[in-house]
């Protein structure tokens, strides 16, 4: 589906310096029974966010008032591993996040984010550490994600790093287009190609 | 120019390449199930699109389905709603559908190969990460998200940058009690859960040549657990023998034509990979995991490594062991277990049941262990009965359930309770994967059987000799 354009984003960030955060943690399987894509934000990180009796865990970053309203999540290395469930990306979006920063993403999760308008920003491990240190020193520290120049900047110190995104996906994010728009435009080429397939 | 198997299949499916962007990649076969498809159909309809090639899409119900009383209406309303949505969408758009109760129903990655939908040289996607299973036939197969499911329904293509290429060579002969599952867990323990991120893997060498098709499926199935987009094995006589005569494979002249193509599907001798790894079969022993991702595994006779010995964050490692209630340096052998799960798209095939039965035959299930034996499909159930394995299962005090994904992701009622320890033949040991608070040890069907009989984690070789 078409989504909001992403150009620049200035926000504080939730820090989650845990490695190998898998999609079963982002949205546990028991919450995948819906047939629509809204409403997953309440269960984002369900088992890390809430106690068994439903009360929030006060030490989990997403529950801390000081970070409330942040639109960026800074996660540990290999973020989003495991299942292909796009519900994980929907939960991230539905919670109000528009960007996830990590030193490495799992492939399918990264694709899913790009397809629904959440920008995955891959930075070096050293820069991720810089961001974590800054957020822990000052939870109100702001991060600027600039898609046109492909830079992420820690505003308090000016420390900045360039990130990669392929030019096609970048155009899509900047304009709020998606792949289906593109593919429907070349349908004749696709159906001609299909005739060459042996089965 | 010399090409790898992966290059050959990939390049022949590129409709066009976008400069600085992905390839428009054509999909031959698309599997859908009840969990990741409903929103894709909503998107399709809200845009006013139709399904471009309904005959290339195949629907089966598996993730949510109960494993008992499948002849009765599904009690869980939300599950029933998803199953209804799949059936409705399939009927509306002219897609074949194997719903609950259908003789062809079962786990998507089990019924695809069984029915000859999975073919060498094909491109196969599904909104499920373990789609990598189908790579066992020399297909390029990988998991996709729901937006991409909609993309394939409406255009039969996805937008995909070509991954880098990795080859993993294992030569030599596997030892006693070492199964394809152990080979896969061994590789993942070496690669970690992110070692193959960005790569497509080809498995090569004597170990994979010697392996059955079902074993190859188990290995390719687990490729995603080291971050790989998928894994594949070059098709050979064993592959062609397996697929020949199945319901949906090409027949007659079409078969001969397909065989001409399939015989070209191998990596040219001088083709190159971005990275290669070599292991020897003798390095591999029956494997077990101790942590909360599939990379945290070891030979069953080893001890849990110290945090200082593992790569990555010490804090994350300690959190993981804390969740499992384990300590650095401990052995897994002899730990009391509560549950055993045989099944899933990793180990729910007939060979897995044969392996399980080879251990339990003439023995009894430990009284305190709850065991869920869940075949991957109705065809597997038929084979179990035809071979008399059902009698061995019953005599040993076990019960056979009906097919489905079951406790692998615990979307149905088969949930391991909080704090309980399960030996599981499934693919993931993430926190809460088999139910909130559950603790999972991944292992082969042989080790699951040995542990079910002894009531504690058991090296299957102990029950195999003498």
Automatic annotation (TrEMBL), chain A:
<protein>
    <recommendedName>
        <fullName>3-isopropylmalate dehydratase small subunit</fullName>
        <ecNumber>4.2.1.33</ecNumber>
    </recommendedName>
</protein>
<keyword id="KW-0456">Lyase</keyword>
<comment type="subunit">
    <text>Heterodimer of LeuC and LeuD.</text>
</comment>
<comment type="similarity">
    <text>Belongs to the LeuD family. LeuD type 1 subfamily.</text>
</comment>
<keyword id="KW-0100">Branched-chain amino acid biosynthesis</keyword>
<keyword id="KW-0028">Amino-acid biosynthesis</keyword>
<dbReference type="Pfam" id="PF00694">
    <property type="entry name" value="Aconitase_C"/>
</dbReference>
<dbReference type="GO" id="GO:0003861">
    <property type="term" value="F:3-isopropylmalate dehydratase activity"/>
</dbReference>
<dbReference type="GO" id="GO:0009098">
    <property type="term" value="P:L-leucine biosynthetic process"/>
</dbReference>
<dbReference type="GO" id="GO:0009316">
    <property type="term" value="C:3-isopropylmalate dehydratase complex"/>
</dbReference>
<dbReference type="InterPro" id="IPR033940">
    <property type="entry name" value="IPMI_Swivel"/>
</dbReference>
<dbReference type="InterPro" id="IPR050075">
    <property type="entry name" value="LeuD"/>
</dbReference>
<dbReference type="InterPro" id="IPR004431">
    <property type="entry name" value="3-IsopropMal_deHydase_ssu"/>
</dbReference>
<keyword id="KW-0432">Leucine biosynthesis</keyword>
<feature type="domain" description="Aconitase A/isopropylmalate dehydratase small subunit swivel">
    <location>
        <begin position="5"/>
        <end position="124"/>
    </location>
</feature>
<comment type="pathway">
    <text>Amino-acid biosynthesis; L-leucine biosynthesis; L-leucine from 3-methyl-2-oxobutanoate: step 2/4.</text>
</comment>
<dbReference type="InterPro" id="IPR015928">
    <property type="entry name" value="Aconitase/3IPM_dehydase_swvl"/>
</dbReference>
<dbReference type="InterPro" id="IPR000573">
    <property type="entry name" value="AconitaseA/IPMdHydase_ssu_swvl"/>
</dbReference>
<comment type="function">
    <text>Catalyzes the isomerization between 2-isopropylmalate and 3-isopropylmalate, via the formation of 2-isopropylmaleate.</text>
</comment>
TrEMBL record, chain B:
<dbReference type="GO" id="GO:0046872">
    <property type="term" value="F:metal ion binding"/>
</dbReference>
<feature type="domain" description="Aconitase/3-isopropylmalate dehydratase large subunit alpha/beta/alpha">
    <location>
        <begin position="7"/>
        <end position="455"/>
    </location>
</feature>
<keyword id="KW-0411">Iron-sulfur</keyword>
<keyword id="KW-0432">Leucine biosynthesis</keyword>
<keyword id="KW-0479">Metal-binding</keyword>
<protein>
    <recommendedName>
        <fullName>3-isopropylmalate dehydratase</fullName>
        <ecNumber>4.2.1.33</ecNumber>
    </recommendedName>
</protein>
<comment type="function">
    <text>Catalyzes the isomerization between 2-isopropylmalate and 3-isopropylmalate, via the formation of 2-isopropylmaleate.</text>
</comment>
<dbReference type="InterPro" id="IPR018136">
    <property type="entry name" value="Aconitase_4Fe-4S_BS"/>
</dbReference>
<dbReference type="GO" id="GO:0009098">
    <property type="term" value="P:L-leucine biosynthetic process"/>
</dbReference>
<dbReference type="InterPro" id="IPR036008">
    <property type="entry name" value="Aconitase_4Fe-4S_dom"/>
</dbReference>
<dbReference type="InterPro" id="IPR050067">
    <property type="entry name" value="IPM_dehydratase_rel_enz"/>
</dbReference>
<dbReference type="InterPro" id="IPR001030">
    <property type="entry name" value="Acoase/IPM_deHydtase_lsu_aba"/>
</dbReference>
<dbReference type="GO" id="GO:0051539">
    <property type="term" value="F:4 iron, 4 sulfur cluster binding"/>
</dbReference>
<dbReference type="Pfam" id="PF00330">
    <property type="entry name" value="Aconitase"/>
</dbReference>
<keyword id="KW-0004">4Fe-4S</keyword>
<dbReference type="InterPro" id="IPR004430">
    <property type="entry name" value="3-IsopropMal_deHydase_lsu"/>
</dbReference>
<dbReference type="InterPro" id="IPR033941">
    <property type="entry name" value="IPMI_cat"/>
</dbReference>
<keyword id="KW-0028">Amino-acid biosynthesis</keyword>
<comment type="pathway">
    <text>Amino-acid biosynthesis; L-leucine biosynthesis; L-leucine from 3-methyl-2-oxobutanoate: step 2/4.</text>
</comment>
<dbReference type="InterPro" id="IPR015931">
    <property type="entry name" value="Acnase/IPM_dHydase_lsu_aba_1/3"/>
</dbReference>
<keyword id="KW-0100">Branched-chain amino acid biosynthesis</keyword>
<dbReference type="GO" id="GO:0003861">
    <property type="term" value="F:3-isopropylmalate dehydratase activity"/>
</dbReference>
């Amino acid at each position: 589906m078409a989504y909001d354009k992403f150009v620049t984003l200035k926000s504080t960030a939730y820090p989650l310096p845990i490695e190998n955060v898998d999609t079963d943690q982002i949205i546990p399987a028991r919450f995948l029974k819906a047939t629509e894509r809204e409403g997953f934000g309440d269960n984002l990180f369900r088992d890390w966010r809430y106690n068994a009796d439903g009360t929030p865990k006060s030490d989990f970053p997403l529950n801390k008032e000081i970070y409330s309203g942040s639109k960026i999540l800074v996660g540990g290395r290999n973020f989003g591993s495991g299942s292909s469930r796009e519900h994980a990306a929907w939960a991230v979006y539905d919670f109000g996040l528009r960007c996830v920063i990590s030193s490495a993403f799992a492939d399918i999760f990264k694709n899913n984010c790009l397809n629904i308008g959440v920008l995955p920003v891959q930075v070096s491990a050293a820069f991720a550490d810089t961001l974590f240190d800054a957020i822990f020193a000052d939870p109100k520290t702001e991060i600027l994600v600039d898609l046109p120049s492909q830079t992420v900047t820690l505003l308090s110190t000016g420390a900045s790093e360039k990130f990669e995104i392929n030019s096609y996906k970048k155009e899509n994010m900047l304009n709020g287009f998606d792949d289906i728009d593109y593919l429907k435009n070349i349908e004749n080429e696709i159906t001609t190609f299909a005739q060459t397939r042996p089965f | 120019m010399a090409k790898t198997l992966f290059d050959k299949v990939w390049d022949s499916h590129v409709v066009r390449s976008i400069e600085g962007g992905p390839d428009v990649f054509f999909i031959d076969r698309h599997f859908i199930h009840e969990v990741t498809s409903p929103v894709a159909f909503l998107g399709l309809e809200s845009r006013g699109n139709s399904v471009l090639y309904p005959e290339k899409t195949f629907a089966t119900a598996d993730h949510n389905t109960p494993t008992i009383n499948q002849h009765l209406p599904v009690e869980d309303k939300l599950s029933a709603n998803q199953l209804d949505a799949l059936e409705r969408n399939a009927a509306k758009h002219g897609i074949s559908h194997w719903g609950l109760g259908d003789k062809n129903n079962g786990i998507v990655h089990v019924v695809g190969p069984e029915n000859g939908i999975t073919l060498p040289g094909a491109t196969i996607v599904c909104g499920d990460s373990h789609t990598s299973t189908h790579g066992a036939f020399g297909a390029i197969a990988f998991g996709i998200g729901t937006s991409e499911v909609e993309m394939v329904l409406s255009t039969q293509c996805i937008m995909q940058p070509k991954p880098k290429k990795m080859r993993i060579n294992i030569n030599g002969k596997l030892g006693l009690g070492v199964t394809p599952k152990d080979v896969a867990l061994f590789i993942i323990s070496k690669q970690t859960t992110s070692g193959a991120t960005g790569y497509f893997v080809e498995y090569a060498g004597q170990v994979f040549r010697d392996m059955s098709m079902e074993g190859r499926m188990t290995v390719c199935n687990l490729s995603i657990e080291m971050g790989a987009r998928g894994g594949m094995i070059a098709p050979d006589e064993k592959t062609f023998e397996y697929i020949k005569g199945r319901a949906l494979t090409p027949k007659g002249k079409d078969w001969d034509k397909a065989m001409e193509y399939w015989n070209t599907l191998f990596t040219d001798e001088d083709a190159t990979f971005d990275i290669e790894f070599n292991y020897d079969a003798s390095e591999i022993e029956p494997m077990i995991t101790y942590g909360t991702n599939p990379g945290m595994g070891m030979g069953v006779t080893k001890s849990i490594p110290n945090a200082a010995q593992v790569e990555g964050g010490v804090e994350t490692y300690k959190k993981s062991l804390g969740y499992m209630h384990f300590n650095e340096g401990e052995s897994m052998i002899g730990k009391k277990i509560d549950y055993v799960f045989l099944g899933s798209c990793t180990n729910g095939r007939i060979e897995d049941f044969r392996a399980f039965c080879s251990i339990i035959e003439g023995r009894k299930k430990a009284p305190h262990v709850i065991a869920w034996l869940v075949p991957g499909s109705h065809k597997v159930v038929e084979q179990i009965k035809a071979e008399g394995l059902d009698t061995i299962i019953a005599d040993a005090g076990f019960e056979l359930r009906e097919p489905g994904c079951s406790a692998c992701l615990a979307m149905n009622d088969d949930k391991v309770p909080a704090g309980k320890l399960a030996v599981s033949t499934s693919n993931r040991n993430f926190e809460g994967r088999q139910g909130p608070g559950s603790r999972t040890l991944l292992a082969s069907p042989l080790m699951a059987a040995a542990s079910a009989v002894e009531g504690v984690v058991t090296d299957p070789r102990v029950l195999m000799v003498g």
